[in-house]
Design goal:
With 436 residues, the protein is α/β, with parallel strands linked by helices. It folds into two domains: 301 residues, Alpha-Beta Barrel (TIM Barrel), CATH 3.20.20; 112 residues, no CATH class. It contains 13 helices and 13 strands.
Amino acid sequence: MNESTQAVTAEVGVGDVLDPDDINWYRQLAGGLTAVNQLHGSANPIGGRSQTTKLRWGVAHPSDMKVEGAIPGVKFALGENVKQSNWENSPRTRYPQTRMGVETIIRDRFTAAREYAQRWAKWNGLDKPGKASTPMPRRDMELEALAEVLGAQRLVHCHSYRQDEILMLCRVAAEFGFKIGTFQHVLEGYKVAEAIKDYAIGGSAFSDWWAYKFEVIDAIPEAGAIMHDVGVTVSFNSDSDELARRMNIEAAKAVKYGGVPPAEALKFLTLNPAKQLKIDDRTGSLEEDKDADFVVWSASPLSTFSRCEATFIEGREYFSLARDATLREKAASERTRLIQKALAQGAKKKPSGGGGGDGAGRPTRGATPPTMTSRSGRGAYFAPVGGPDDIERAQEEAALHAMEREMNWLILNGFDPFTTHRGACGCSSQCLFNAK
């Protein structure tokens, strides 16, 4: 999610658009996730405010998903995305268009934020008569967020790939006197791990992503292990609601690539990200007085053969295989009922076929609607029992419903359904609507 119309958008916040009913929360609970760091996209040198969220799927109010008392964050980004190198069909007119411009705009905004904080400090220091005779400074939500960074009240989470850009932001942080929260993705972080250790809380890396654009040419799967060995607090991130369902396998890659001990590799998903978000006093490990956020696995979570059997957040069960099986049975029964009702109503609108057949043993469209039978497989599949016309009609209706769902999804997510092709948005719509 990007507010990409301008280079600096620290005034917008992911926390304003939480949806506790999104089915992806449930799918991630089924993969053993309990909390996430939701970040604005990487289209801006300085993007929107982030949100630390617990996966309390289905709560009554979106704010109930937020981790109470968690230090807020803001998304920064460096590299090709923010200078629009890979914005193929968009007009490339927005400043900055170069890496030097990216550094300059970050310095410029921090300078403005420092002056903004000074104006407020001066006004707040006035006595009551002084405040009455002095205009209050104009509130600027963009500069307010950056002033909170300078005051150690907000963390920077920065999308980063190349070592030179990582070092650049480290120097900016040193100049303005703040500590970076995390370098996100941090594909070349293994080259400058010492600087990350000194100037950031940690690095939230991709496990083994490379070769998807030019600036990741030096990415290696051992990066997380190398940074860990240097002393960086390392976590692995998903950058995808699809991959987020299998983060336990991402942790296992730290064992395969780099030989990280299994117990330490598991911390890449548990205690280390909690430290990076400064919520390790309440979650990230099973300890007395911490929140009871934990997952029950069928075997070692680092095994591809293991399954998440149950997920608990603050002691409450939000997912279990047993409950999931019950919900699937209820959903299958309800789906059958609705399809039968739709077919029956459709048949009432058709003229009678004269005895229910066409004289050749084939049912006509006016005949009694076909019943639906359940066929076992992945999930629940329903096929009409009837003649060829009924089967063809059901298939056409299913295709139309799928197309309608896809178009609605694209519209709700800001895409033009008439110009967007499957996969072109880089999101999960292709997986969602091509699922068998």
